[in-house]
Amino acid sequence: MSRWSRRASYIVHLLGALAVGCTPIPAVQKPLPGLLVLWTLDSIVTIDGKPPHAVRPIPLDDRFRNIISCSVAGDRLALVSLTDNSTAFSVSVIDFRTGKLLYETQAAAQTVALHRQGELIAFTRSVPNEPGSYDVCVWEPRKSIITTVASGAARFETSLMWGPASTDLTFDDNQGWIQIINFQTRSMRKLVAGEQGRWSADGRYFAYRRGRTLYIYDASTQKHSPLLRRSFAAAEFAGQVAWSPDTRYVAASLYAGLDGQERRHIVIDRVTGEAQELTRGSYFLGDWLPNE
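Below the sequence we write its predicted structure tokens.
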């Protein structure tokens, strides 16, 4: 990237950060379903959808540090982190309620996705001597098997999740596409041009980002509709999105602050398009869980 390109990029980010304060996104005024998971490098919390939106920490052992990804399904939580005094990242599965460690394997992982039945863990793993390229792998801890299902196909900071079919995975590739792959047959196809896509719980809708716009793909009609557009001067999207358990709302994050470390977490009504701010801070957006 040239000096002028870097300067232009910095100016765009600065303008977006300055525009955060005047962006008309009001605070959430009504109850939301379920619990939203948020995480930082050293903690994972849930925020209640019901006012006053209580924040509760998930019990984690002090040995977990530098968390870079997490995924929750049922009563289990998978995370990628450094552990103890290790300098290599591990994929760990713990009991969501108690913090008890269930499984762990060392891997140069980046992003993790826990299968809804809790027995399959997908993760991306950096490819040696190929910067920016990541394998898509599936770990079966009961069998102590790690299988590479797509070699070097995923990009850095990809979104990764299990699809409506229990054998399908979606991820971002290096060519600007979201791919869907069957981890058993290895068959792969392009789903949509974009990034950071997430399926709704019923498998009907797929929310994804393309540029400064958040879209929804309706699998039943095969139509793509813009849900929220961000103007050139407005703060950009940051990280993944999440669906509410009832598929009514999509959660997303916007950059806030000049250093890019703070984020505004907003929810957008799929039906009305109304956006509201739930919280802000240094947390990253995780999964949206059903009520306990």
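Residues 35 and 289 are 5 Å apart (CA to CA).
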